[in-house]
């Protein structure tokens, strides 16, 4: 019969042996047959099936600031929405995987009552939109801009009236025809008077844009197309999932 003391000693030895073997496995890495990344499986290179997947190094950053709200479509896909409709004025930064030619479509809205065009009851607020892409694409007067909601007409705050232009269903689509739309108007930083968050992000080289009337035009759609002749994706995989219907109506 083992004494209680020798049993304790034996279990101590077993525990030690177990610990040493666990440590040895941890040092050696995964057991044979486990997944190992060979040179071909590294970021950017083809895997054993010849598939090249895009990596984060293929993405670019987009910084967006809207007075007061925006929704952004790229190549017909819903890409970003301003998460704060009104104040505080915020910057939205998103990573995108650019594919060229790149069609950019933005709907921007000033804070304006749909019935009067006013804010805070009797005040005429102003708009403003600026965007910068990591590939150097910036907002400026080469973009198209069309207003769909004007008010108060003639800046009459006593008897405010508004005017709507129907928004085309597919304004965000790649093949939407915007050739008859006017160019965007650039506004100075001091005129738009952006809030603190604007200065904490990179908008160098970009211009604030709107339709011609920064005060009375309250829903403006911007569009542009970035060409990169000869551009080919480094990757050869395509999404299998279908998100083309977003946002679902
Ligand atoms: Ca306004
Ligand atoms: Ca505003």
Commentary on this structure:
The protein has 249 residues and is an alpha+beta fold. The protein has a domain of 171 residues: Jelly Rolls (Sandwich), CATH 2.60.120. Helix content is 13%, strand content 25%. The protein is built from 3 helices and 11 strands; from the N terminus they run αβββββββββααββ. The chain has a 6-stranded antiparallel β-sheet with strand order 3-2-5-11-7-8, with no helix packed on it. A 3-stranded antiparallel β-sheet has the order 4-1-6, with no helix packed on it. A hairpin with a 2-residue loop joins strand 2 and strand 3. The longest helix is centred in the N-terminal third of the chain and has 25 residues. The chain is globular and about 80 Å long. The protein starts with a helix and ends in a 23-residue tail after the last strand. About 8% of the residues have low confidence. Bound molecules: calcium ion (CA) (2 copies). The site of one calcium ion (CA) has 7 residues, from loops.
Provide a concise account of the structure shown:
This protein has 249 residues and is α+β, with helices and mostly antiparallel strands. The chain is built from 3 helices and 11 strands, in the order αβββββββββααββ.
């Amino acid at each position: 019969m083992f004494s209680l003391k020798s049993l304790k000693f034996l279990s101590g030895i077993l525990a030690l042996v177990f610990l040493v073997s666990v440590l040895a496995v941890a040092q050696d890495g995964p057991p044979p047959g486990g997944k190992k990344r060979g040179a071909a499986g590294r970021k950017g290179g083809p895997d054993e099936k010849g598939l090249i997947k895009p990596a984060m190094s293929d993405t670019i950053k987009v910084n967006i600031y809207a007075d007061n709200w925006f929704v952004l479509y790229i190549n017909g896909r819903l890409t970003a929405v301003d998460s704060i409709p009104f104040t505080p004025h915020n910057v939205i930064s998103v990573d995108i995987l650019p594919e060229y030619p790149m069609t950019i479509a933005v709907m921007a809205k000033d804070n304006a009552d749909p019935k009067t065009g006013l804010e805070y009851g009797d005040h005429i607020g102003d708009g403003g939109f600026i965007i910068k892409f990591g590939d150097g694409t910036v907002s400026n007067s080469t973009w198209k801009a069309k207003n769909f909601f004007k008010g108060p007409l003639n800046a009459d705050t006593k008897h405010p009236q508004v005017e709507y232009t129907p928004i085309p269903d597919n304004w965000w689509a790649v093949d939407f025809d915007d050739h008859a739309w006017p160019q965007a108007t650039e506004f100075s930083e001091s005129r738009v008077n952006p809030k603190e968050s604007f200065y904490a992000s990179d908008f160098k080289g970009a211009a604030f844009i709107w339709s011609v009337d920064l005060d009375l035009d309250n829903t403006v759609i911007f569009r542009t197309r970035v060409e990169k002749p000869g551009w080919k994706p480094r990757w050869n995989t395509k999404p299998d999932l279908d998100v083309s219907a977003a946002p679902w109506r």
